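Anyone? Bumping this.
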Amino acid sequence: MAGPTLRDVAKRANVSIRTVSNVVNGYAPVSEELRARVQAALDELDYRPNLIARNLKQGRTGMIALVVPELDVPYFAELAREVITAARARGYVVMIDQTDGDGERERELLGRDSRATMFDGLLLSPLTVSAEELRARGNRVPIVLLGEHIFNGSFHHVAIDNVAAAREATGHLLGLGRRRVAAIGDQPYATGETAQLRTAGYRQAHARAGVEVDERLIVPTPHFHRRLGAEAMESLLALPEPPDAVFCYNDLLALGAIRALIRAGRRVPDDVAVVGVDDIEEGQYSTPSLTTIAPDKGEIARQAVNTLLATINGEATAPAEIVVPHRLIVRESTGGS
Amino acid sequence: MAGPTLRDVAKRANVSIRTVSNVVNGYAPVSEELRARVQAALDELDYRPNLIARNLKQGRTGMIALVVPELDVPYFAELAREVITAARARGYVVMIDQTDGDGERERELLGRDSRATMFDGLLLSPLTVSAEELRARGNRVPIVLLGEHIFNGSFHHVAIDNVAAAREATGHLLGLGRRRVAAIGDQPYATGETAQLRTAGYRQAHARAGVEVDERLIVPTPHFHRRLGAEAMESLLALPEPPDAVFCYNDLLALGAIRALIRAGRRVPDDVAVVGVDDIEEGQYSTPSLTTIAPDKGEIARQAVNTLLATINGEATAPAEIVVPHRLIVRESTGGS
DNA sequence: TGAGAGCTCTGCAACGATGCAGACATCATG
DNA sequence: CATGATGTCTGCATCGTTGCAGAGCTCTCA
């Protein structure tokens, strides 16, 4: 199983190990004749450098890890794709792990036996671990946080402006003349910071439009999955005065809500207009297609990777909140095309 | 940036490096008193083992790589999730890379400078690389293939019985009384082996039902994406005698086709019934929900990981075709619920 | 001709960990 | 008391690579 080493090649070509290494890496000048001889030996033995040894010597692996709650949530899958692409452009590969939103799993990462030391850096999209914990665990590996708003000056953090995004989404619905706009996805507890920012934006939009918020229209959900969106929608439809529009905190909730609406015989957008967040590909092809807040995922990935690599390379900058642009895409679920 | 090493800890605790290593790993017996002293030093310095060094010494990394065409294709995302879970259960972590269906990228993996040597094994879902190439490149890393049918005795290969699956899907539509059943997704060229197997199953079902195949109803698509499904459906609707049912070679094609049907004012399943393959979560929540062939993804992942680890551990078995079960799930798009 | 410069090439040490063999002390046994 | 067994602990070599310093040779030019 173990392949040939520099030693084997050196022996075959009758040169020093060091010279073979030089040929492989093109470091030092090597005469044409010797180079040819070494190259022949390399080819004959089909030598492959042992990257682990190289990494040990050089103190870096060329790998970063991306840790997300769930890889089969389309938003994370699409983001992962962008991260892989951005990392490859910089010569890095990406290890992906998922935590299932399980705090234990997230904490494992910071533990003593974590494999985190195998990576040059970590991109982390934490659900339950707080920034304080992260800092306390004092992992020596550079970290950049994604999405969740737990910025407190300790880490770089890349995200869209969640308040503005929610304000625009809600404002769009109010601008259509809807007056009973529901919100699905609030998380009024410690680890639900992103959700809370969106609720704040939802309230701001109402305030600006001079419309009073009916607190019964704000439905919290512990996760952002289709099923919970459908259930939340069903409970909203059971209200004496059901909503005529819904702002869902992500696209999956929105798609679940739409499913529930159609099952209940409501028309979308005629009876109830729906907006989501994330712009997952599915929303372009659903029936009706989904109006959504589209974060620039490519930019999120590039910013995150660039910031992480800068930290890795010691071009340290103070931890910062990096805001990435987003835009509202109007599709059929609110009357667009 | 560099953390403390065994040497640092040893110096602090006034013991040998070897003893610290023993404490860390619990290998050899160490007296209570010494253990406590070493442990204290470990804690004070917040020692983390350097996994790269450990890996170099032990000749394995505890990492496997999963290479898929596109991570944001739901099937692959869901499969990736299962693979990560299965690998974790066996103490392995998973590096994920995507090739974008680009032959170059796939071939890079086998090239001299590939990072493949950093992994104990490779799970590969190739689109364009043939088994011959794989074998010729003679990568020393154990490989298990996923999904594509390019088995030729050189590699382990995990997949469902594609012919049977397609036969069942098509048979289901014929069993509903449909007589003009289209097929979307054929790939009648060298690297489209899976698609060809499904086409074979499609023909078998027709033969068994005594229905003649109208060749114009078989629409090839170079990829399995929503957009191509929609376009294929549009071309089918433009036929003088459009189909009354469609078997799509994956769920994304099916969802695209449904989208096109609804836009064209056709009812699903009343006018046209639709079946897909993959059972991605989206199909449960789409409108209408999607009838599909559901491969047992968890089992695919477990079989693939187990086979790969067996190979890694030298429990070599002859390369084999490992068939994983699938089943037809009837939902609204063919009249189910 | 000899010193210096320049070009190739080499050996040694090191990255941080673990495998192995053995040193040393202690204890039980005949 | 000698012997061997047992239990702790240590030093050396090693994994496969690269950094560093320098060896040996050729060539130039005074």
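Late reply, but here is one note on the structure posted above: Chain A has a mean pLDDT of 91.
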